[in-house]
Amino acid sequence: MPDTGADGDLEAPRIRVEVADGVATITLARPDALNALDRPMREQLIRAFREAERDREVRAILLAAEGRAFCAGQDLREEFGGAGPTLTDEIRQRYNPLILAIHRSSRPVVAAINGVAAGAGCSLALACDIRIAADSASIVLAFGKIGLVPDSGVSWFLPRLVGSARAADLALVGDALPAAEALRIGLVSRVVPADALVAEARAIAVRLAAGSPTAMGLTKRALDYAAGSSLEEALEHEAWLQGIAGRSADHAEGLAAFREKRPPRFTGE
C-alpha cells in the first residue's frame, strides 16, 4: 500500500466522474499526493463504481488519473488502531469492497496507467479488465518495504495474470516493473506513448461501450468462473451463459444488423 500526502479538507472531492458516449470516466484527482488513497478517496471510489453499475447510460468504465502517478497506494499519513479502525478493519470495510466493485462490475473496466502504480494502486489496476500503460509507467509491489503484505486482491490477481513464479518474484523482491516488461509478461495489454494514453484508453472504452451490454457482462462472468473451474465445468457454464445470451434482444439485434449489413444498435435487453 505505499505513499504520501493528505488533504486538509476531508469533504473535498478526491475524484472526478464524467459520463459521455456511454463511458463513465473515473479520474483519481489528488495529483499533489500522487493520488495516494486516503479514507475519503476510497469511499468516493466505492460510490462512483456502484453508481456507474446502476446507471443504464454507462456501458464501460475508464479509470484514469491526474498528474504524474496513477496511484501511489495507501496514504501513509493515515493512522490505524487506537480510537480508529485497525488496518484489518480498513481493508475489510473499504479496500475489499472497492476491489470487488471494480472486478464484479458488469461493465468492462479499462485502466489508463499514466505513471507509477504502487501497492494498493497496483491493486486498483489489476482489478480492471484491461490495462493500458504509458511507456513511462511502472508497477511496484512495495508492501514489503514498509513491512506489510500484499492486499486488496494482489495475491489473487497476480498469479492468475503472470504465473506463480513471476508473482512471487514481484511480491517478495518488490522491484519496480517498467511498462515494457509489464507488457512482456502479460500484466498490461498495451503500452502507448504517454501523450497518447488517455486518447487510446478512451477509444477502447468507447468501442466497448458500443458493444452488447448483455454479452459484455456475460463474458466477464465466463472468464471469472473459468479461472477457478475445471474444463468440464467451464464448458457447462459457457453453455448456460450462451443460452441466456441467445435469448436476448441484443442477440436478435446483432443477427439483424449482420443480415442488413449495418452497425448494430444494442440496448442491453
Structural overview:
- The protein is α/β, with parallel strands linked by helices and 269 residues long.
- It folds into two domains: 15-209, 2-enoyl-CoA Hydratase, Chain A, domain 1; 213-260, Lyase 2-enoyl-coa Hydratase, Chain  A, domain 2, CATH 1.10.12.
- It has helices spanning 39-54, 87-103, 120-127, 154-162, 164-173, 179-184, 197-209, 213-226, 231-246, 249-260; strands at 15-20, 23-28, 60-65, 69-71, 109-113, 116-118, 130-134, 138-140, 177-178, 190-192.
- The strands form two sheets. The chain has a six-stranded mixed beta sheet, with helices on both faces. The chain has a four-stranded mixed beta sheet with strand order 4-6-8-9.
- The N and C termini lie far apart (40 Å).
- Mean pLDDT is 91; it is low at 1-6.
What would you say about this model in short?
Helices cover 45% and strands 16% of the residues. It is an alpha/beta fold. The chain folds into 2 domains: 15-209, 2-enoyl-CoA Hydratase, Chain A, domain 1 (Alpha-Beta Complex), CATH 3.90.226; 213-260, Orthogonal Bundle (Lyase 2-enoyl-coa Hydratase, Chain  A, domain 2), CATH 1.10.12.
Characteristics:
Lyase 2-enoyl-coa Hydratase, Chain  A, domain 2, alpha/beta, four-stranded mixed β-sheet, 2 domains, 2-enoyl-CoA Hydratase, Chain A, domain 1
